Amino acid sequence: MKTSLAAIERDVLACTRCPELRAYAARVAREKKPAHASCDYWAKPVPGFGDARARVLVVGLAPGAHGSNRTGRPFTGDASGDFLYPALYRAGFATQPQALGRDDGLKLRDCFITAAARCAPPKNKPTPQELRNCFPYLVAEFESLSRVRVAIGLGSIGFAAAVKALRECGWTLEPQRPKFAHGAQAVATRARRSMTLLASYHPSRQNTNTGVLTKAMFDAIFTRARDCLR
Asked: Left (φ > 0), alpha (ψ -120 to 50) or beta: where does 29 sit?
């Protein structure tokens, strides 16, 4: 049964399936980063963000300890978001390129952003069990966002989570076992609907600062997403 995005958000905010992650998020919020010493950290699970009628769904990895765990919104307040939101803006999926906090006025157009894990994990590496604990929320979002025609998995974990969620929702994939690579593409079908699944390197600092992921490479992903919608 389809669950509303508002109900999913309430469930995410109330989640206590990973006590160790809740404790870690709270500790980070107490200790803080010197640059954010005056900030009140969110320090809770981070719900998805965007347009409820979105045709593009972006699946990331997990909140950053001093990014989303501080601001309470996906990819907001850290280097990954500083790379993602300008790309969304250039492609027409965001109203502004800056993502500073939940009250910065940013809105997404035809796009929804979520993640494989909803709590900030140590070293940005959620455990397999933590990913399993979060997985039902991703499945619920795929079902609730019934207009999605393009799903984009950021990084191997985000891509694998999207593939797994589509299968859980009854979609058939071609190829059946999509392999992660930047620019990889698969097609999912269910009844009379079809969806394009795209893969991109994650816009983490270790990828963007080293040139593994460039602005042109990232823009090409969202340009392809836009073309698929046409």
From this structure: alpha
The count of domains in the chain is 1
d(CA 141, CA 171): 14
- For residue 133, what are the domain limits? 5-229
Q: φ, ψ for residue 228 (rounded to 5)? A: -65, -35
Q: What CATH number does residue 57 fall under?
A: 3.40.470.10
Question: Which of 164, 196, 200 has its CA nearest to residue 180?
Answer: 200
Is 60 in contact with 87 (CB distance < 8 Å)? Answer: no
Q: Could you give the maximum distance between any two Cα atoms of the chain, in Å? A: 53
230 has pLDDT over 80: yes
Q: pLDDT at residue 124 above 90?
A: yes
pLDDT of residue 2: 81
